[in-house]
């Protein structure tokens, strides 16, 4: 699992161009070179990447070296991967931008602080930060081997597959647009491609989120494929179940309009409808009805599929955590 920190910054930095890569500066420079780190005598700085340590080919990444001591100047070096010989010998203050990134930027980085007045006195070196360059190869496919609505305590398997014979597949989980975790599995090869099955669970609320997968080779572990199309995993069973009813007779003629009403005594922000365990649409906001309960009416226009329908409730600040589903409402279509 990759560990990393992400930060955003609002101050507009100045920009300095080195070769084909502009490096953003706030008043000094930063050194990039390949050396073996040595132990420092002062506190260790932290190295972070924004917006992510996984950087699409041709995009940018901002690295920041932070220290709680009196160091204001830093140097960066690359431990693994191809050396960056075209940018070296330039100290920087706190942060810089690599833009646009190529595969040569993939690798492991550390930073350390120093003072111009005492150049032989340096801080300890930061923990390593892995910079992954994605988009090197064609994206794989990601699919859930059961519907993406997963009851609390159950398991779900996500299959990542590709026509390319990758050595490794990586699954990343995202919450609120930020990468939370990543998991790696060796690929299984078969006629016409490769695949890996990621088993998740028994699920807790922490497993809710958006998942993507990537492929890579063992000889270049910091160079990944494009990301797959994402899958949203929603965890159900967190709150009391709702009631679902039809606002007209339960027998529906094909092509006929109808309305399903979802009602709860709990003040959910949103209501959601599913058919056979698969979410339909983007949900509707709840409205207070004349009975003092909260309701949303789903207009099915036209109904063309028979099946079991259920509804769920969720809150705005945790949109991928859903209530226990309503009892199933079976709609036959004639």
Helices and strands in order, then pairings?
Layout: E1 14-18, E2 21-25, E3 31-33, E4 46-50, E5 54-56, E6 61-66, E7 73-80, E8 95-98, E9 107-114, E10 129-134, E11 141-144, E12 149-151, E13 156-162, E14 168-175, E15 178-186, E16 188-190, E17 193-200, E18 209-217, E19 220-224, E20 231-236, E21 243-246, E22 258-264, E23 270-275, E24 278-285, E25 287-288, E26 294-300, E27 307-315, E28 318-322, E29 329-331
Parallel strand pairs: 3-7, 5-10, 12-20
Antiparallel strand pairs: 1-2, 4-6, 6-8, 7-9, 9-10, 11-13, 13-17, 14-15, 14-18, 16-17, 18-19, 18-20, 21-22, 22-26, 23-24, 23-27, 25-26, 27-28, 27-29
Which key terms come to mind for this protein?
disordered N terminus; elongated; 334 residues; Immunoglobulin-like; 29 strands; six-stranded mixed sheet; mainly beta
CATH superfamily of the largest domain: Immunoglobulins
CATH architecture of the largest domain: Sandwich
Query: How many separate domains?
Result: 3
Beta strands, count: 29
Under CATH, the topology of the largest domain can be stated as Immunoglobulin-like
Give the fraction of residues assigned to helices: under 10%
Uncertain residue ranges: 1-42
Q: Describe the sheet with the most strands.
A: 6 strands, mixed
CATH class of the largest domain: Mainly Beta
- SSE run: EEEEEEEEEEEEEEEEEEEEEEEEEEEEE
Molecular shape: elongated
Mean pLDDT: 83
Backbone structural class = mainly beta
- How large is the share of residues in beta strands? over 45%
Give me the Rg, rounded.
26 Å
Number of helices: 0
Distance between the termini: 51 Å
């Amino acid at each position: 699992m990759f560990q990393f920190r992400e930060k955003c910054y609002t101050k507009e930095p100045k920009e300095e161009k080195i070769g084909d890569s502009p490096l953003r500066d706030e008043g000094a420079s930063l050194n990039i070179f390949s050396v073996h780190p040595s132990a420092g005598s002062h506190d260790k700085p932290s190295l972070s990447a924004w917006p992510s340590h996984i950087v699409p080919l041709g995009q940018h990444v901002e690295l920041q070296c932070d220290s709680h001591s009196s160091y204001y100047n830093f140097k960066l070096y690359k431990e693994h991967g191809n050396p960056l010989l075209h940018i070296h010998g330039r100290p920087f203050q706190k942060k810089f931008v690599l833009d646009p990134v190529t595969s040569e930027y993939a690798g492991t980085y550390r930073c350390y602080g120093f003072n111009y007045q005492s150049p032989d006195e340096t801080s300890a070196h930061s923990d390593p930060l892995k910079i992954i360059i994605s988009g090197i190869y064609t994206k794989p496919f990601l699919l859930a081997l059961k519907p993406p609505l997963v009851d609390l305590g159950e398991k779900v398997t996500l299959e990542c597959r590709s026509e390319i014979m990758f050595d490794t597949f990586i699954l990343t989980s995202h919450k609120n647009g930020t990468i939370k975790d990543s998991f790696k599995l060796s690929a299984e090869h078969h006629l016409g491609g490769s695949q890996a099955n990621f088993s998740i669970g028994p699920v807790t609320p922490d497993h809710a989120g958006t998942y993507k997968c990537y492929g890579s080779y063992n000889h270049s572990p910091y160079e990944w494929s494009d990301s797959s199309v994402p899958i949203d995993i929603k965890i159900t069973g967190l709150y009391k179940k709702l009631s679902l009813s039809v606002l007209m007779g339960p027998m529906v003629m094909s092509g006929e309009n109808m309305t399903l009403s979802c009602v709860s005594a709990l003040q959910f922000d949103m209501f959601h409808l599913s058919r056979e365990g698969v979410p339909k649409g983007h949900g509707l906001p709840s409205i207070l009805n004349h009975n003092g309960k909260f309701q949303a009416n789903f207009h099915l226009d036209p109904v063309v599929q028979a099946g079991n329908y259920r509804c769920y409730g969720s809150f705005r600040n945790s949109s991928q955590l859903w209530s226990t589903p309503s009892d199933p409402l079976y709609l036959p279509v004639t």
